[in-house]
């Protein structure tokens, strides 16, 4: 029996027949022989085996000469103000902008005292020249906590009533001078000094102290202590004005009675000043008790104020010693 086993099977039983390999095809061999593409070598400088230069970069895209549409150059702030879509979407966008604006105002109001407090009181017009310019800052709603808002606002009313009392005291002093009572010239001179000295001093000493103490949430016992000290001085001064001894510069009950004996009409006017000082004294007494309640509610104590005062005095002594 003739042996029909092919020759390739004797050499390697796992090899495929020569005709089965696609690389033995004559057309593939011809294509490989005619190919001129160099073999890529990643470790060569040029990127190919032959050491040639890198392939040329792709040509740049042609620049368009068409005009830019309007929507591409429109300001973003202008686009932000436009609302596209349905009516409900426009309403919601408007509500969102209002809420965002309110949030920014609240943030600015909270950061105002830290970043800067522009003067807005007295409320003189912007066209006024110095000295008719705002000197102090007020923002009761924005800077003061809820628990101290009312007492600070009433403190401002007390100062307004006090300043009006000093003004009316000066007017009644003029009436007393015209009536010719004893020491009327001294009365008028002191009334004039009280108006232009004690009026601004009261605002700067006790009212500003009260405002700053509440604005800082009662964190400074020394500020509270200074407020009560100056406020007590004003209460004593009002008590003296109620009595109305002419030599003290106050148009109170004694001065009104003396003027009434000389001039009935002038005496009636002076009695209004005595009544005003009496009511103001009671008002200050009530307000002082109210402020004391707020002071304790904020966690303050007079012992803490005394300690802070001692610390400030010690720091001042050390600074003076170093300066010498």
Concise structural overview:
This protein has helices spanning 7-11, 26-34, 70-73, 76-81, 87-115, 140-143, 146-179, 184-215, 221-243, 253-262, 264-297, 302-323. It is an all-alpha fold and 324 residues long. The chain has a domain at 148-323.
Structure overview:
This protein is mostly helical and 324 residues long. The protein has a domain at 148-323. Helices cover 65% and strands 0% of the residues. The chain contains twelve helices and no strands. It has helices spanning 7-11, 26-34, 70-73, 76-81, 87-115, 140-143, 146-179, 184-215, 221-243, 253-262, 264-297, 302-323. Helix 7 runs antiparallel to helix 8 (184-215), helix 9 runs antiparallel to helix 11 (264-297) and helix 10 packs antiparallel against helix 11. The chain is elongated and about 145 Å long. The protein starts with 6 loop residues before the first helix and ends with a helix. 20% of the residues are buried.
The dominant shape is elongated
- Uncertain regions: pLDDT < 50 for 5+ in a row? 46-54, 75-84, 108-115
**Total beta strands:** 0
From the alpha-carbon coordinates, what is the Rg to the nearest angstrom?
47 Å
- State mean pLDDT (0 to 100 scale): 75
Secondary-structure element order, N to C: HHHHHHHHHHHH
The secondary structure category is mainly alpha
Assembly type of the chains comes to single chain
What summary fits the major beta sheet? none
Count of runs of 4 or more consecutive helical residues:
12
Question: Which range does the strand content fall in?
Answer: under 5%
Query: Which bin fits the share of residues in helices?
Result: 55-70%
- What is the first-to-last residue Cα distance? 134 Å
């Amino acid at each position: 029996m003739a042996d029909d086993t092919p020759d390739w099977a004797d050499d390697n039983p796992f090899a495929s027949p020569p005709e089965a390999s696609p690389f033995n095809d004559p057309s593939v061999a011809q294509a490989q022989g005619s190919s001129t593409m160099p073999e890529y070598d990643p470790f060569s400088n040029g990127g190919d085996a032959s050491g040639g230069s890198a392939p040329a970069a792709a040509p740049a895209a042609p620049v368009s000469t068409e005009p830019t549409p309007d929507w591409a150059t429109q300001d973003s702030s202008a686009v932000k103000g436009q609302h596209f879509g349905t009516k409900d979407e426009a309403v919601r966008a408007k509500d969102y902008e209002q809420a965002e604006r309110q949030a920014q105002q609240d943030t600015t109001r909270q950061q105002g005292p830290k970043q800067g407090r522009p003067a807005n009181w007295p409320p003189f017009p912007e066209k006024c020249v110095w000295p008719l310019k705002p000197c102090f800052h007020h923002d009761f709603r924005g800077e003061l906590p809820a628990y101290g808002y009312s007492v600070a606002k009433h403190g401002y009313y007390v100062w307004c009533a006090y300043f009006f009392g000093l003004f009316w005291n000066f007017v009644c002093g003029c009436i007393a001078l015209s009536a010719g009572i004893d020491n009327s010239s001294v009365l008028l001179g002191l009334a004039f000094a009280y108006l232009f000295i004690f009026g601004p001093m009261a605002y700067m000493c006790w009212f500003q102290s009260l405002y700053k103490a509440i604005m800082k949430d009662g964190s400074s016992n020394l500020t509270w202590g200074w407020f009560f000290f100056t406020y007590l001085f004003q209460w004593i001064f009002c008590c003296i004005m109620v009595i109305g001894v002419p030599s003290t510069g106050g148009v109170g009950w004694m001065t009104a009675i003396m003027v009434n004996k000389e001039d009935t009409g002038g005496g009636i006017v002076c009695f209004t000043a005595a009544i005003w000082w009496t009511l103001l004294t009671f008002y200050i007494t009530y307000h002082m008790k109210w402020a004391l309640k707020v002071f304790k509610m904020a966690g303050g104590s007079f012992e803490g104020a005394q300690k802070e005062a001692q610390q400030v005095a010690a720091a001042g002594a050390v600074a003076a010693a170093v300066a010498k």
